[in-house]
């Protein structure tokens, strides 16, 4: 991604005779391309982060093509800033695939563009031309786009994909959709192209978010895989060297074992490991010799609450382990205790550790910054109590979905957000960044405690991938925070004790029949379900439960907590039975292995 190509792709284009002519041209070429990518499904719902479904037999080809068209239009509506398209189904089985769109600053697609995406994907083939014409005319006439934006800049779309067998061809379908927005007769070398696609190949979802952000804002970093690895590793090594100079962090080199879920995270770790030197040893397992996400990875470990499986895996007391998901945007820590039992350190525990570390450094630097933590209903009740009562952190609860957490975290000077599933990061506002850099730059006399703390925070800001939850970045941040505290996994786990919990899925005829409120903690429809849940919770010691419809499939997710493992399991099964009975459940009731 050279600056030369950036300048070429964002060059001012010669204006067409009229915007109507451009609209007609785009409609003609896009529809011509769409005939080679015919629609194969009825209505497809836009989920929490995009579209996701079974991908064998070319079933997602047309979705990818149309998302390529949408990405090109989105880039053009933003003066030609680069946007990203990631082909991945994250933690889903290997036969699934999906697509996520990335904004110029690394954020996800704005909520107001989700209906546009859904409308484009669900337009039937025979009406696609009319739909595109209406869509383009609407975009031109609405707040999304002006005439100057429409004709001035070439759209630029960066396309990446994970390691699934279906991903390369689907990524090419995305690129075909981008190219379909060009007038007939133009080719890749033509300066009159209205949109270009750049294939980045195999990478993690967070790496694509990072590269898109850096492409549009070079101050954030170098837009390449090596730039990503060097930025994170460089910050981690400098923090480790500072810790060594002040005599902290315990004796000997630290190491962590990583279950890479046979996904793309293994490649990112392979590039990172040599740069960490003696400061952190990465021992990578499930690096591609097995089936993606099958009985391994962050989602399996979190939901099943058990060790991952894989060739030659052995779990020894004292070892620290982490599981990534398939596209490396989630991370779950765990360990084997002295009695050989599985112990999990999920997103709640990661949030607590990082929040406690950051608050300590902020206070040491003498900074008056508003620090908050954002969770979802899946956060364990004990984590919320610990954060609010022990750490004094403002805690906010939002609906499930990274887009909701990310948005709410921006309301704080320093916003820590994590879902219990291990997807999270830390956001630093411009005010926080300026305050930290101002103290860190104080060069009068010898650096005191405040200056040293601010300089440490300055490095931590480089260690964090603020664009999205990033398993690699969080791994390094957690390892730094643990080293600063002189903790292993057991000491970390002892900061508070989770209530036992259980998650189940209930298949239903139509997930839209279930609606919720209060950040998904209360069920509105079907009528009568919430009172049943309330009665079951009231009868369970320290009970808590909620249900919510999936964003991608016809299932209702059940979450339950209780004072003991038996009570949590019992409550989950009882709530699942109520959902199955009152929300038109299909198939057998869920069970616990």
Automatic annotation (TrEMBL):
<feature type="binding site">
    <location>
        <position position="557"/>
    </location>
    <ligand>
        <name>substrate</name>
    </ligand>
</feature>
<keyword id="KW-0460">Magnesium</keyword>
<protein>
    <recommendedName>
        <fullName>phosphoacetylglucosamine mutase</fullName>
        <ecNumber>5.4.2.3</ecNumber>
    </recommendedName>
</protein>
<dbReference type="InterPro" id="IPR016055">
    <property type="entry name" value="A-D-PHexomutase_a/b/a-I/II/III"/>
</dbReference>
<dbReference type="GO" id="GO:0006048">
    <property type="term" value="P:UDP-N-acetylglucosamine biosynthetic process"/>
</dbReference>
<dbReference type="Pfam" id="PF21404">
    <property type="entry name" value="AMG1_III"/>
</dbReference>
<dbReference type="InterPro" id="IPR036900">
    <property type="entry name" value="A-D-PHexomutase_C_sf"/>
</dbReference>
<feature type="binding site">
    <location>
        <begin position="419"/>
        <end position="421"/>
    </location>
    <ligand>
        <name>substrate</name>
    </ligand>
</feature>
<feature type="domain" description="Alpha-D-phosphohexomutase C-terminal">
    <location>
        <begin position="536"/>
        <end position="578"/>
    </location>
</feature>
<dbReference type="InterPro" id="IPR005844">
    <property type="entry name" value="A-D-PHexomutase_a/b/a-I"/>
</dbReference>
<dbReference type="GO" id="GO:0004610">
    <property type="term" value="F:phosphoacetylglucosamine mutase activity"/>
</dbReference>
<feature type="binding site">
    <location>
        <position position="325"/>
    </location>
    <ligand>
        <name>Mg(2+)</name>
    </ligand>
</feature>
<feature type="domain" description="Alpha-D-phosphohexomutase alpha/beta/alpha">
    <location>
        <begin position="81"/>
        <end position="113"/>
    </location>
</feature>
<feature type="binding site" description="via phosphate group">
    <location>
        <position position="90"/>
    </location>
    <ligand>
        <name>Mg(2+)</name>
    </ligand>
</feature>
<feature type="active site" description="Phosphoserine intermediate">
    <location>
        <position position="90"/>
    </location>
</feature>
<dbReference type="InterPro" id="IPR005843">
    <property type="entry name" value="A-D-PHexomutase_C"/>
</dbReference>
<comment type="similarity">
    <text>Belongs to the phosphohexose mutase family.</text>
</comment>
<keyword id="KW-0597">Phosphoprotein</keyword>
<feature type="binding site">
    <location>
        <begin position="548"/>
        <end position="552"/>
    </location>
    <ligand>
        <name>substrate</name>
    </ligand>
</feature>
<keyword id="KW-0413">Isomerase</keyword>
<feature type="domain" description="Phosphoacetylglucosamine mutase AMG1">
    <location>
        <begin position="346"/>
        <end position="487"/>
    </location>
</feature>
<dbReference type="GO" id="GO:0000287">
    <property type="term" value="F:magnesium ion binding"/>
</dbReference>
<dbReference type="InterPro" id="IPR016066">
    <property type="entry name" value="A-D-PHexomutase_CS"/>
</dbReference>
<feature type="binding site">
    <location>
        <position position="329"/>
    </location>
    <ligand>
        <name>Mg(2+)</name>
    </ligand>
</feature>
<dbReference type="InterPro" id="IPR016657">
    <property type="entry name" value="PAGM"/>
</dbReference>
<dbReference type="Pfam" id="PF02878">
    <property type="entry name" value="PGM_PMM_I"/>
</dbReference>
<dbReference type="InterPro" id="IPR049022">
    <property type="entry name" value="AMG1_III"/>
</dbReference>
<dbReference type="GO" id="GO:0005975">
    <property type="term" value="P:carbohydrate metabolic process"/>
</dbReference>
<feature type="binding site">
    <location>
        <position position="327"/>
    </location>
    <ligand>
        <name>Mg(2+)</name>
    </ligand>
</feature>
<keyword id="KW-0479">Metal-binding</keyword>
<comment type="pathway">
    <text>Nucleotide-sugar biosynthesis; UDP-N-acetyl-alpha-D-glucosamine biosynthesis; N-acetyl-alpha-D-glucosamine 1-phosphate from alpha-D-glucosamine 6-phosphate (route I): step 2/2.</text>
</comment>
<dbReference type="Pfam" id="PF00408">
    <property type="entry name" value="PGM_PMM_IV"/>
</dbReference>
């Amino acid at each position: 991604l050279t600056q030369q190509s950036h300048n070429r792709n964002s060059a001012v284009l010669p204006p067409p005779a009229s915007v109507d002519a451009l609209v007609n041209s785009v409609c003609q070429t896009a529809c011509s391309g769409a005939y080679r990518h015919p629609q194969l499904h009825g209505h497809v719902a836009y989920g929490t982060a995009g579209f996701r479904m079974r991908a064998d037999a070319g079933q997602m080809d047309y979705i990818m093509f149309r998302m390529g068209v949408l990405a090109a239009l989105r880039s053009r509506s933003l003066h030609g800033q680069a946007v990203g398209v990631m082909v991945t189904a994250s933690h889903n089985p290997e036969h699934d695939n999906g697509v996520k769109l990335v904004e110029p600053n690394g954020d996800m697609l704005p909520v107001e563009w989700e209906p546009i995406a859904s409308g484009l994907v669900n337009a039937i083939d025979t009406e696609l031309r009319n739909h595109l014409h209406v869509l383009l005319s609407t975009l031109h006439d609405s707040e999304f786009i002006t005439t100057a934006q429409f004709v001035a800049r070439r759209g630029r779309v960066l396309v990446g994909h994970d390691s699934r067998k279906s991903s390369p061809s689907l990524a090419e379908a995305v690129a075909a959709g981008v190219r379909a927005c060009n007038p007939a007769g133009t080719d890749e070398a033509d300066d009159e192209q209205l949109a270009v696609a750049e294939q980045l190949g195999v990478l993690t979802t967070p790496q694509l978010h990072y590269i898109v952000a850096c492409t549009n804002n070079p101050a954030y970093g170098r837009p390449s895989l090596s730039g990503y690895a060097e930025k994170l590793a460089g910050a981690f090594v400098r923090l480790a060297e500072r810790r060594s100079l002040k005599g902290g962090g315990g004796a000997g080199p630290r190491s962590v074992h990583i279950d890479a879920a046979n996904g793309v995270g293994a490649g990112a770790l392979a590039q990172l490991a040599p740069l960490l030197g003696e400061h952190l040893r990465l021992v990578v397992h499930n690096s591609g010799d097995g089936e993606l996400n099958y009985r391994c990875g962050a989602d399996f470990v979190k939901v099943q609450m058990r060790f991952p499986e894989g060739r030659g895996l052995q779990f020894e007391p004292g070892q620290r382990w982490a599981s990534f998901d398939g596209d490396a945007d989630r991370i779950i820590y765990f360990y084997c205790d002295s009695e050989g039992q599985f112990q999990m350190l999920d997103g709640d525990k990661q949030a607590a550790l990082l929040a406690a570390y950051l608050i300590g450094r902020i206070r040491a630097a003498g900074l008056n910054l508003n620090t908050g933590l954002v969770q979802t209903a899946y956060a364990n009740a004990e984590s919320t109590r610990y954060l609010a009562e022990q750490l004094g952190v403002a805690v906010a609860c939002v609906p499930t979905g990274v887009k909701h957490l990310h948005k709410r975290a921006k309301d704080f000077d320093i916003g820590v957000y994590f879902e219990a599933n291990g997807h999270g990061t830390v956001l630093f506002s411009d005010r926080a960044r300026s305050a930290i850099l101002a103290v860190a730059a104080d060069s009068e006399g010898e650096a005191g405690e405040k200056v040293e703390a601010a300089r440490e925070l300055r490095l931590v800001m480089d260690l964090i991938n603020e664009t999205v939850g990033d398993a690699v970045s969080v791994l390094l941040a957690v390892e730094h925070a643990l080293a600063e505290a002189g903790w292993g996994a057991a000491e970390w786990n002892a900061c508070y004790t989770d209530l036992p919990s259980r998650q189940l899925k209930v298949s239903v005829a139509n997930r839209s029949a279930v609606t919720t409120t209060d950040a998904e903690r209360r069920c509105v429809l079907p009528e009568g379900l919430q009172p049943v849940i309330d009665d079951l919770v009231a009868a369970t010691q320290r009970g808590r439960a909620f249900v919510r419809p999936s964003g991608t499939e016809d299932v209702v997710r059940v979450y339950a907590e209780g004072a003991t493992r038996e009570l949590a399991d019992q409550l989950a099964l009882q709530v699942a039975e109520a959902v199955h009975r009152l929300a038109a459940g299909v198939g057998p009731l869920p069970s616990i292995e």
